[in-house]
Fold these 4 entries.
Entry 1:
Amino acid sequence: MDGLLNEIIAKYNYWIYVVLMMIGFYAMIGKRNLVKKLLGMNIFQTAIILFFVSTGVKRGAGIPIVDKYEVLKHGVDASTVVNPLPHVLMLTAIVVSVSVTGVALALLIRIHRRYGTLEEDEILEKIRQ
């Protein structure tokens, strides 16, 4: 039991990401206001980005900028440098997330102008009429 508790405490950041993901998921599924749904989606995306960035961390590792002559002579020890791929992919994900949020906000403005509300139930009721 003590080993399990130590394992859970050692991975506390992953538990925080899971909690953030569930908060975002609940906001997307459980809320009826479209702005709250959008905020939930942003929280969910942020949790995923934080998770991927944290998986790319190595304690005591340096940045992967090496001298090409040194690499040709001795090679590169992969345990001494950080893999930049997760960070680069998440930088792309952040750009996509900001773009999606901007387009979604523009659509929400159009929806509000057309229906006078951002509540999902009221919009569906007005569409059915």
Note: The chain is about 75% helix and 0% strand.
Entry 2:
Amino acid sequence: MSRTTSRLSRVIASSLIVSCSLMAVPMHASAQIVPTDALVQPATAGAAADSRARVNAFFARGDVRQAMMNEGVDAASAQARVDAMSDDEIRALDGRIAKAPAGGEVLGIIFTVFVILLITDILGFTKVFPFTRSIR
């Protein structure tokens, strides 16, 4: 056992000597001014075109046009304003449209109410659903 231990300590000592020796080797670093354009990756023209196409498709939908007319907004003038937007503005608008709720909140509320009523039916506090049996 002592032979294995001495061999292991030799290997560990040798690796520590090599690694400590390599720490003394000077490393060269260079500093230079980096232009902002090199760090900030410009959005490709394809991404801007895709965002513009999605926004135009959104404004071309019938329900969106009807909602704009209900609010008193002319669809043609709204489309002209969208066409005049820069690529950054189009990307921001596309992101806001993608994050906008599309009726998901209403379905979530209905599902939550259903689950609460189902649990209260099972516990015997209410009798709303005929397919449940009370545990009482």
Note: The chain has a mean pLDDT of 79.
Entry 3:
Amino acid sequence: MNSPRTTLYRDKHNGKIMGVCAGIADYTGINVFWVRMAAFLSIFMLSGMTILAYIAAGLLLNKKPPYLYRDASEQKYWQGVRQSPKRTAREIRANFRDIDRRLAAVESHYVSSNPRLTAEIERLR
């Protein structure tokens, strides 16, 4: 089952008609203006298909929960996850490696300046 943050919703709060374009914009991270412009232009290119797809999406998609994200940075993070899960996983692994490296440096600093602590750590190994 999908996480609530990786699901496409209608965004009635930021929407104009049914919230479909605003929901797509929220899901993809694309500015809602460009999503609306693409929908508007596709009406002339595909005529009835676009309107039917829009109505179907408006009826089938769930309404976006009011507090899906805590703040804009969390929203941007989840948009990145939806756009490229592999890249997001790589970034998280890189962050953990950096934290591990910095923690090892702190441990090394404190252990090297405290012979009693060094002996205690060696005894525990």
Note: The mean pLDDT is 79.
Entry 4:
Amino acid sequence: MALKIVKYPEPVLQQPGEPITEFNDELRGFVADLFETMYAAKGIGLAAPQVAVSKRITVIDLSSGKNPEEKLVLINPEIIGREGKQYEEEGCLSFPDIHEKVQRAAKVTVRAQDEYGKWFERDGEELLSRAFQHEIDHLDGVLFIFRMSGLKRDIIVRRIRKAQREGTW
């Protein structure tokens, strides 16, 4: 079932998510809903806070549903290694039609649990590295606009406020 994606400045987006402690059918159903929601929105990553659930779970699929083997579920993830730098454009489903360059590590190693509670580690470079960092930021209550210069962030926030006043946000 596709869920509703919340938009900035919804408070849940800036709250750290609670750790997942129960790995059951309900959780696996939520994972399926996250993937369905992400695909419907044409995204490559979606974190639970983006659907108003303050939990430490995110899904990523760089193939946008074209390759089932690329589907990743990260529960209680943490970045345990970072290398290099990249400065590339990012977007966010909670900030529709907003894209800006953000600096991130070029390569990261993530430690997380799958939907059955099994721990694993995974390296990501370039786009996957950005997706890992962007989605884990969501779980920490950090939004990609916080990774921009103050000037760019202010311009975006003003644009959002104007759109809210006009009823288009």
Note: The chain is about 30% helix and 30% strand.
